[in-house]
Design a protein that fits this description.
homodimer; mainly alpha; Arc Repressor Mutant, subunit A; 2 domains; two-stranded antiparallel ribbon; 7 helices; elongated; DNA-binding
DNA sequence: ATAAATTCTATAATATTAGTAGGGTATTGA
DNA sequence: TCAATACCCTACTAATATTATAGAATTTAT
């Protein structure tokens, strides 16, 4: 399941994607428009900024805006940024790989292969869903 | 990601599936064979019993054994039993559906459709992985 | 200068997870 | 019958993660 953070991040990105080109959105606008607690959203937007999905302008008249095309932001990326691995165990993960305790002794746990198949299918599906595809429902 | 409980449940089921027909396994055997804390495993086996994957015999010479074919126990079922919904949000779930707070006001949140597509693909993949398929790696 | 906005760090409240403890109940076999 | 063995059940605890909130520092437009 998605964390609140990941869900809020998606809602915030959807909000930004729906604005006119070159429009800058203040945090408070996004918070009210997408029903997100403002102070919590601040942290989320900073995370999105550090990961280069959005950029910001400080000070009066400042705010946030997309710097990555809404067609190129996938659900897989947002999931990984806020919730980590897509695979069901670390030993089956591409981006967050680590051997599980049992893998060490048995070299490979029995679960790994099956979980990698599931990861591949889930990842493919998640890469197919973009902010743009969500905006036009 | 899978909880420890779900992972241990899978390991325990794998252990049982590897035993000879009609063999009864004591909790302590499974715990040592699959590297699972014994008292924690007790709870997990009881959950598996209540969900009719295994049955048990009490008293001396007692233990646990599979009552569902290893070909018919899927990863999807174990995930749902221990970790709940497969979908990324409750509003996109088949077995654990509930409207999210935003769905109420907007009737449907923008995320729902995309998340249902992901759920469908993940579910298909998870139903394809059985205890039997994991035993023969 | 002042107001408005982002940025940053710390902290609090809550929920979940992972595991432990300890006794109760059923069955076997001497 | 009685003791040993093994499942059954509930409660509790410790650690961790999640979901925020608070408050001050910094930047920018006017």
């Amino acid at each position: 399941m998605l964390s609140q953070k990941a869900k809020y991040a998606l809602k915030a990105l959807l909000y930004l994607a729906e604005q006119e080109e070159n429009h800058i959105s203040r945090t408070i606008e996004i918070a009210e428009g997408a029903h997100i607690p403002k102070k919590f959203l601040e942290q989320i937007l900073l995370d999105l900024k550090r990961a280069r999905f959005v950029s910001s302008k400080q000070g009066k008249m400042g705010g946030y805006y997309l710097i990555k095309s809404k067609h190129d932001i996938t659900l897989a990326e947002i999931h990984r940024l806020f919730d980590g691995a897509i695979a069901l165990l670390p030993c089956a993960s591409l981006n967050f790989y680590e051997p599980c305790s049992d893998c060490k002794t048995e070299n490979e746990c029995n679960l790994r292969h099956g979980l990698m198949m599931i990861r591949d299918e889930t990842l493919k599906a998640m890469q197919n869903i973009t902010i743009a595809s969500l905006v036009d429902k």
